[in-house]
């Protein structure tokens, strides 16, 4: 039954299964920085990594290219960290698209995500049409986001994934995804250098097959942390000593906390600076302090030990600043203000008023996205355009000291060398930097076994994985380990990407499924003699055994070893059988027969027939039918000398043994066709093999 | 073929003793839990002491004494040296529990089984895992994966899954399926058909668990009733386990009702406990982490609870009714015992037990019904020595010191005599060997001892004492002195150093008072006096143990339906009861071993791996059933290039197989399905379902257990020949998949 239905559908199945093709498509952050979003598909499972917004654009233009995919097919969405360019289009994606998969991020990321995006919605001054989402969407999205702890393995629809510490910012994670044994590592933004409060990115225990890795820093090498911190504090110290003001435009969360830790410690060590105020102008960062104070488990040992004595995030020398109105610009000071790109807001206001004084300094503390003012002034232009449209000379010193906590070239190449992934996909980097990185990495992996790819947005990278499907045969079927040529039949149970083969009656032992038998008993009114039924049945079915019911002593018949016909009373007979398609068919025909007897009672004449004779006649009939059918199929069919049928088609000759079904022919195609045809004819003539149950 | 698994209980079977079990998986010995009781009875550890040195890994499940109390002692005295695995909260709170135990004990006895350093050492090398983290064991345990999963009961509490070759051994004791204020329920039911389940029968006979709301109401009513009449309420609690739930209930109730009665949480480590708990939000219930994510409300920022770490603070508290949560729950030691003795004779007071006391403890005695009218308790107190005693002590100490010195010198004399001989042969007589200097002191007799101090001693080869001399030789080459570039590298860590060193030790943040107590080396002694306490205060016991009750345990085990089941940790009666129940209803292999009786629970499962060829798979049509897919395969065994068995499609036609109906029919669900299809259905007697007017449908044979463990279902459908019959049969078929 099952086998025949498979053979019918066989042709519909494509010969090559598309499941082994793995596709990675950046929907954002492909050869650019911003709006990280990478789509991945393998064996019918679809995963989206990150869901960011491009900080330099607004409205729909800032979104990743979601049109490229069908959001409803995404099984899992994994967010690496809370930065705008990695998480900010999440409310849009969750609330405004057909996406109905599951979303995961770490605890700290989730806690900060909400604060950050609520702030983002408030701050971004765009028209209502351009608003991608509002606060309500963010709150709704909170209910759909699930949390995952570092190293915790989660399985969704057969996709296994877990995350590693990524450094970068609090709660940042690198995701390792395992689909049917093929492992993909998505680093997000990561840093292999331990800093004041964060651990360095971990080196995964397993080597991935594909590594999707950020390339923000390209081939740059970072200065050591110590030197960076010294440069930073030196610039600040000398500027304020000369009576200048220091502006540090920084993103509210992430690196800002690190810088504040540095400043607070520096001030504590230099009492002469204590009369110079440090402001940090971010109500958002203030709100997030509770998060920083709570998730110390995600930070490094240094901070955890410090926490044991006093909370390092309670700053002694740093004052919060709510708005520019509260700020009296009277003398040297240090102000850390948002936004980091100097697009607008407090940092821009301060920049505008300070930029023409050469005593002042501006420290750009991290990577800046192309198209922002902060990026522009790194190249130290002579003039800048102020917010009011006027131009002003840029006299203030501009220092670029990167605290960005993105892996530099040295970190990236050692990381990759440790992992040795056969496929490397570079994302999250400017096209030029990325190409340079690619070239340089090629020289690091000269053996040619490593593919390095730099897809642009919406450009798919295709890879093929010859994933072997392994099954475990268990239970009774496995009692004897089979040799080549033995047959194995049983139920194949697929759960996720694991397969098990087992005997049907052990299904309930090894899986949560169970089997059932359905026994049917049906009563039919029948007033005639039971012998009549027996006689009729014998004429139709090959096997009818009579017996008597042990309890009631009434006669019973077992038809075709399947269906028991019993005389229940004078007026009723009953049929009992165990459900399966063939038995159902047999019983149906018995029912039809019994009903017909009832109707035709008067006409019944018991014919005295020789059983042997009828057998012979049957045989002859069968032969006739087979012959006729073969003729209709092949044309020239003759009875050969040795009782075999000789079939000629286009000059090819085949001999068919009617008893065994064996075919002899020199033409293999013909041979196969005749064999199949004969098998089918036989099963049509004798549809119910007696031995089916064996 | 299967992974060999043996289970040997070391403590805690057929009684309520602490838990400690040896589970050996293919020769790799796991010690799961390492518990002790509040009485620190060394006889309980006899079995452990015999095997301690053979242990390869220790897994801890809950942060209380019963589950990890013996760890410091075993590490120190019994030769246990294996790596320990636990979740972060179990590690941290377990450490604090042990501190509290030690400090409580030290107050009332000359406790010498282990010291604070032993506790630190034991917990220093705990490998911390998160829930569902699959940790691949290194070295000898290659191929074994361990993972802790949520158990409920206590913060960080774990059920352990040990996996080897796809076979699971699950250890789940003291789990709680019910969600609580600060904890999620266990995920035990997400495991199905593990090879072995080791679980406790602790609550097997305990059935009438009151609903949470009602219980909370009674709890709070009882407390407020006593407070309102001016009484005090004492809750004897554990250090850092179940007490967290109680704190939350009280905190919540107090802020809702605006009560002004003070609540005190008094243990030696209470403030550290709460500080750490505040940073463990990831491990708590969804609602707690959610409230933090949305409003940054940390549930353990306790506004109504005052944390105290010594009794004086409580005595200095303003008089009036108050609630005190104090350790230990057993009333055998700790502040709770003192407070109990003070408060017991006032009928207005209430002692509210929230868990069954350990066997043979004061708490257990007070929980008996009817409660005793009088109890005899030995109260011990550590008092500083004074007057004559102090003088006597100092003299004794001095005498001991002198004896010690004398003994040492004698020993050293012996040693140096021996070493002198070898020193004479030394090839470099000028080398100053500071290591041997100590020995030399003795060689010149005790007379020198007062003159010579460390580093001011003669080399063994010299005849008379001399100043130490170090030859500061430096290497030269043609460019001058050879320098070591490392000496000139600017050290990155310099800036961190200050911070790194403050409190970098394991105990991190011990309360100052506690620290002073620890460092208190003033001579003191323990004085004991026996007194009889009249118990006139109310004694109430309520169940805040956070364990699943008997019924849930049974349905949980039935759901998990392990191939083999090992029962531990319960009184004989409960063990026997659960064993019989499981034998009858769940699985045929149930073991309840005695102490040191090894049961072999190696699965007798046969299995081999085959590769499924593409050709075969392209012809298989899966049918989806729940979260798995099923199909029938007929195949022939072949070999792949890598000489692995692979399944190929049959060359000839497959012999037909008996059709199989796959599916799990629930009569009740089917009834609903039928009525949704417009068929009149009702239950007739004997579990039969009457469909329409004539057709009946019933399950026959042994009543199907949940999880289908009992075998295939048998369903009987009968009726007269009519249209309804065929219609209902079709509906019935629609519930199954035919393979």
TrEMBL record, chain A:
Residues 1-21 are annotated as: Disordered. Residues 34-244 form the Metallo-beta-lactamase domain. It is found in: Nucleus. Signal peptide: none annotated. Residues 9-20 have a biased composition (Basic and acidic residues). Keywords: Hydrolase, mRNA processing, Nuclease, Nucleus. The keyword Nuclease applies. Residues 256-377 form the Beta-Casp domain. Residues 484-688 form the Pre-mRNA 3'-end-processing endonuclease polyadenylation factor C-term domain. This is Cleavage and polyadenylation specificity factor subunit 3-I. The lineage of its organism: Eukaryota, Viridiplantae, Streptophyta, Embryophyta, Tracheophyta. The gene is LOC104703693.
Automatic annotation (TrEMBL), chain B:
SMART domains: Beta-Casp, Lactamase_B. It comes from the Eukaryota. Keywords: mRNA processing, Nucleus, RNA-binding. The keyword RNA-binding applies. It is found in: Nucleus. Residues 243-366 form the Beta-Casp domain. Residues 17-226 form the Metallo-beta-lactamase domain. The keyword RNA-binding applies. Its main location: nucleus. Gene3D superfamilies: Ribonuclease Z/Hydroxyacylglutathione hydrolase-like (3.60.15.10). Belongs to the metallo-beta-lactamase superfamily. RNA-metabolizing metallo-beta-lactamase-like family. CPSF2/YSH1 subfamily. This is Cleavage and polyadenylation specificity factor subunit 2. It comes from Camelina sativa.
């Amino acid at each position: 039954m099952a086998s025949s239905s498979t053979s019918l559908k066989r042709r519909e199945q494509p010969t090559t299964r598309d499941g082994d093709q793995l596709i990675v498509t950046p929907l954002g952050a492909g050869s650019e920085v911003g709006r990280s979003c990478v789509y991945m598909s393998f064996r019918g499972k679809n995963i989206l990594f990150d869901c960011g917004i491009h900080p330099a654009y607004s409205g729909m233009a800032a979104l990743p290219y979601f049109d490229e995919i069908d959001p409803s097919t995404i099984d899992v969405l994994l967010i690496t960290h809370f930065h705008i360019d990695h998480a900010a289009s999440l409310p849009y994606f969750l609330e405004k698209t057909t996406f109905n998969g599951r979303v995961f991020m770490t605890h700290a990321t989730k806690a900060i995500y909400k604060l950050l995006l609520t702030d983002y919605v408030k701050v971004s001054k765009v028209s209502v049409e351009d608003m991608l989402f509002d606060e309500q969407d963010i709150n709704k999205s909170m209910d759909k986001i699930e949390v995952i702890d570092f190293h915790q393995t989660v399985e969704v629809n057969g996709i296994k994934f877990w995350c590693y510490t990524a450094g970068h910012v609090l709660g940042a994670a690198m995701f390792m995804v395992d689909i049917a044994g093929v492992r993909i590592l998505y680093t997000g933004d990561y840093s292999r250098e331990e800093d004041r409060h964060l651990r360095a990115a971990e080196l995964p225990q397993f080597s991935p097959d594909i590594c999707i890795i950020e390339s923000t820093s390209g081939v740059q090498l970072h200065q050591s942390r110590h030197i960076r911190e010294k440069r930073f504090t030196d610039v600040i110290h000398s500027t304020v000593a000369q009576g200048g003001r220091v502006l540090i435009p920084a993103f509210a969360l992430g690196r800002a906390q690190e810088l504040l830790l540095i400043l607070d410690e520096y001030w504590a060590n230099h009492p002469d600076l204590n009369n110079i105020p440090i402001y940090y102008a971010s109500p958002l960062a203030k709100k997030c302090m509770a998060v920083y104070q709570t998730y110390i488990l995600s930070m490094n040992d240094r901070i955890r030990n410090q926490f044991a004595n006093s909370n390092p995030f309670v700053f002694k020398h740093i004052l919060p600043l709510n708005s520019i109105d509260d700020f009296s610009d009277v003398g040297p000071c240090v102000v850390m203000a948002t936004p980091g790109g100097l697009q607008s807001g407090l940092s821009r206001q301060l920049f505008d008023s300070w930029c023409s004084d050469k005593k002042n300094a501006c420290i750009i503390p991290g990577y800046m996205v192309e198209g922002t003012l902060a990026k522009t002034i790194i190249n130290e232009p002579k003039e800048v355009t102020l917010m009011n449209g006027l131009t002003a000379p840029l006299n203030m010193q501009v220092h670029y000291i990167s605290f960005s906590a993105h892996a530099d070239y040295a970190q990236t190449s050692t990381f990759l060398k440790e992992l040795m992934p056969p496929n490397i996909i570079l994302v999250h980097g400017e096209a030029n930097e990325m190409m340079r990185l690619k070239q340089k990495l090629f020289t690091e992996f000269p053996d040619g076994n490593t593919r390095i790819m730099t897809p642009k947005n919406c450009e798919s990278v295709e890879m093929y994985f010859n994933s072997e499907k392994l099954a475990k045969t268990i239970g009774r079927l496995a009692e004897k380990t089979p040799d080549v040529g033995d047959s194995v039949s049983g139920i194949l149970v697929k759960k996720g990407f694991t397969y098990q083969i087992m005997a049907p009656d052990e299904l309930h032992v090894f899986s949560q499924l169970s089997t059932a038998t359905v026994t049917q008993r049906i009563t039919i009114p029948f007033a005639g003699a039971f012998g009549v039924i027996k006689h009729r049945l014998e004429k139709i079915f090959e096997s009818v055994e009579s017996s008597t019911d042990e309890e009631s002593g009434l006669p019973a018949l077992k038809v075709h070893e399947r269906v028991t016909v019993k005389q229940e009373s004078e007026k009723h007979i009953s049929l009992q059988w165990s459900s399966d398609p063939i038995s159902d068919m047999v019983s149906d025909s018995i029912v039809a027969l019994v009903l017909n007897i009832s109707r035709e009672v008067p006409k019944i004449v018991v014919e005295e027939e020789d059983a042997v004779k009828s057998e012979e006649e049957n045989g002859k009939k069968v032969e006739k039918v087979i012959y006729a059918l073969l003729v209709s199929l092949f044309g020239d069919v003759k009875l050969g000398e040795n009782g075999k049928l000789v079939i000629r088609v286009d000059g090819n000759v085949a001999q068919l043994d009617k008893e065994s079904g064996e075919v002899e022919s020199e033409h293999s195609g013909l041979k196969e066709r005749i064999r199949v045809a004969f098998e089918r004819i036989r099963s049509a003539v004798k549809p119910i093999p007696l031995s089916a149950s064996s | 073929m299967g992974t060999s698994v043996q289970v040997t209980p070391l403590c805690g079977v057929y009684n309520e003793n602490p838990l400690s079990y040896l589970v050996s998986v293919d020769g790799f010995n796991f010690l799961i839990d390492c518990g002790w009781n509040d009485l620190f009875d060394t006889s309980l550890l006899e079995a452990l002491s015999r095997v301690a040195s053979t242990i390869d890994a220790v897994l801890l499940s809950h942060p209380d004494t019963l589950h990890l109390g013996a760890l410091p002692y075993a590490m120190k005295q019994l030769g246990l040296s294996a790596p320990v695995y636990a979740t972060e909260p179990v590690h941290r709170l377990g450490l604090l529990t042990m501190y509290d135990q030690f400090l409580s004990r030290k107050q009332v006895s000359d406790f010498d089984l282990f010291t604070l350093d032993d506790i630190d050492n034991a917990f220093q090398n705990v490998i911390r895992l998160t829930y569902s983290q699959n940790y691949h064991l290194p070295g000898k345990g290659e191929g074994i994966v361990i993972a802790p999963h949520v158990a409920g009961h206590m913060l960080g509490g774990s059920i352990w899954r040990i996996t080897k070759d796809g076979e699971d051994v699950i250890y789940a004791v003291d789990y709680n399926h019910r969600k609580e204020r600060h904890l999620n329920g266990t995920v035990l039911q997400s495991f199905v058909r593990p090879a072995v389940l080791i679980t406790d029968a602790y609550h097997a006979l305990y059935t009438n668990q009151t609903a949470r709301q009602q219980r909370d109401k009674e709890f709070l009513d009882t407390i407020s009733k006593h407070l309102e009449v001016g009484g005090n309420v004492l809750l004897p609690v554990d250090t850092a386990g179940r007490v967290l739930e109680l704190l939350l209930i009280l905190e919540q109730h107090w802020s809702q009702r605006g009560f002004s009665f003070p609540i005190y949480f008094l243990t030696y480590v209470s403030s550290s406990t709460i500080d750490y708990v505040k940073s463990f939000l990831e491990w708590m219930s969804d609602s707690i982490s959610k409230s933090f994510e949305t409003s940054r409300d940390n549930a353990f920022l306790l506004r109504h609870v005052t944390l105290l770490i010594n009794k004086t603070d409580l005595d200095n508290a303003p008089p009036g009714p108050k609630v005190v949560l104090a350790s230990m729950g057993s009333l055998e030691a700790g502040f709770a015992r003192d407070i109990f003795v003070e408060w017991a004779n006032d009928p207005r007071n209430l002692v509210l037990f929230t868990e069954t006391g350990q066997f043979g403890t004061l708490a257990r005695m007070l929980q008996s019904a009817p409660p005793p009218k009088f109890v005899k308790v030995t109260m011990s107190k550590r008092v500083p020595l004074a007057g004559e005693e102090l003088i006597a002590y100092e003299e004794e100490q001095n005498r001991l010191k002198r004896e010690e010195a004398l003994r040492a010198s004698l020993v050293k004399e012996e040693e140096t005599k021996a070493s002198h001989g070898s020193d004479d042969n030394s090839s470099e007589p000028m080398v100053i060997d500071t290591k041997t200097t100590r020995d030399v002191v003795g060689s010149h007799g005790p007379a020198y001892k007062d003159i010579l101090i460390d580093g001011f001693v003669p080399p063994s080869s010299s005849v008379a004492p001399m100043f130490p001399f170090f030859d500061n030789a430096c290497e030269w080459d043609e460019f001058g002195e050879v320098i070591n570039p490392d000496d000139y590298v600017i050290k990155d860590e310099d800036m961190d150093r200050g911070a790194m060193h403050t409190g970098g030790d394991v105990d991190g943040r011990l309360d100052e008072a506690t620290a002073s107590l620890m460092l208190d080396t003033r001579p003191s002694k323990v004085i004991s006096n026996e007194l009889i306490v009249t118990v006139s205060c109310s004694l109430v016991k309520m169940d805040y143990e956070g364990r699943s009750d008997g019924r849930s345990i049974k349905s949980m085990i039935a759901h998990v339906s392990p191939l083999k089941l090992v029962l531990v940790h319960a009184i004989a009666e409960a063990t026997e009861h659960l064993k019989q129940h499981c034998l009858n209803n769940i699985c045929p292999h149930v073991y309840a071993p005695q102490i040191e009786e090894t049961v072999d629970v190696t699965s007798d499962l046969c299995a081999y791996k085959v590769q499924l060829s593409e050709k075969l798979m392209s012809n298989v049509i899966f049918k989806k059933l729940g979260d798995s897919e099923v199909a029938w395969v007929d195949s022939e065994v072949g070999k792949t290039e890598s000489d692995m068995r692979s399944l190929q499609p049959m060359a000839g036609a497959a012999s037909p197989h008996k059709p199989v109906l796959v599916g799990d029919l629930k009569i009740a669900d089917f009834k609903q399905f039928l009525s949704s299809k417009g068929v009149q259905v009702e239950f007739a007697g004997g579990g039969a379902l009457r469909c329409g007017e004539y057709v009946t449908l019933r399950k026959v044979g042994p009543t199907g257990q949940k999880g289908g463990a009992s075998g295939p279902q048998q369903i009987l459908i009968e009726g007269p020949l009519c249209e309804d019959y065929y219609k209902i049969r079709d509906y019935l078929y629609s519930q199954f998949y035919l393979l």
